[in-house]
Specification:
By secondary structure, the chain is mainly α. Helix content is 35%, strand content 5%. Helix 5 packs parallel to helix 7. The protein is elongated.
Length: 231
């Protein structure tokens, strides 16, 4: 509603009825539609030059400081570039955590978990080695060298991976399959699983060669020939 004082003080309402929306003067709008009053901005004591500053008098923003990249940083985004090899880090059981490794190598913690298939940060304590993704870091390993050497640690890591994947605790069988596959873990696991499938499909062939169920190696953990006694 519009009060009587507003109607009396507004000169436009003398020729226009806000209730009927009809104007007695000529208007470009058809009758029955609202013909809004012209808008005039409120008067201001400040000069227009101070309100609307031109671009010529506007101050330019300060220049950006140069970005300091961390040591070993590799820019990603160009898929044509060859991604460098991952860096092997030897885990310290009491000092290394996912957060500390992320800060030390300037690598996101999410990238470290994804690269190493780590579903929980507390599982890092059970590992001896940890991979630093090469697309984020390119440089030397920041961990101390192990006593047995880096190559020996990599070999033992592949043996543990094969034994866990195949659920075999016999160290000699692990060495046999990995030596034949030249320490290619995926190929060695595939060969072992295919042999297991052949034995299940041809049980009589195994018995004819003198191989009985009792002669097969026990595929359960906890024996004296397990990984804890060999590594």
């Amino acid at each position: 509603m519009i009060c009587g004082n507003c109607i009396a003080k507004n000169d436009r309402f003398a020729t226009y009825c806000p209730f009927c929306q009809i104007s007695s003067d000529r208007t470009p709008l058809p009758q029955g539609l609202r013909d809004p009053p012209a808008y005039s901005p409120p008067s201001s004591s400040r000069p227009a030059s101070s309100i609307f500053a031109t671009s010529s008098h506007a101050e330019e923003p300060p220049a950006y400081s140069p970005l300091v990249l961390p040591q070993g940083y590799v820019e990603i985004g160009d898929h044509n570039k060859e991604i460098p090899a991952d860096v092997l880090h030897f885990v310290h059981p009491t000092q290394d955590t996912v957060s500390s490794l992320a800060l030390r190598y300037s690598v996101p913690a999410l990238a470290l978990r994804k690269k190493n298939n780590l579903y929980a940060d507390n599982l890092l304590a059970a590992r001896k080695t940890f991979l630093i993704p090469g697309e984020y870091y390119q440089g030397p390993s920041l961990s101390p060298e192990p006593i047995d050497g880096e190559e020996e640690e990599i070999r033992k890591s592949k043996i543990r991976r094969w034994m866990v994947a195949c659920k075999v605790s016999d160290y000699d069988i692990a060495l046999l399959y990995l030596d034949q596959a030249q320490y290619d873990v995926d190929s060695a696991v595939e060969t072992y699983l295919s042999d297991e499938m052949w034995e299940r499909e041809h049980p009589l062939a195994c018995l004819s060669k003198g191989k009985s169920v009792a002669d097969r190696p026990r595929r359960k953990f906890g024996t004296q020939t397990g990984i804890s006694g060999q590594l």
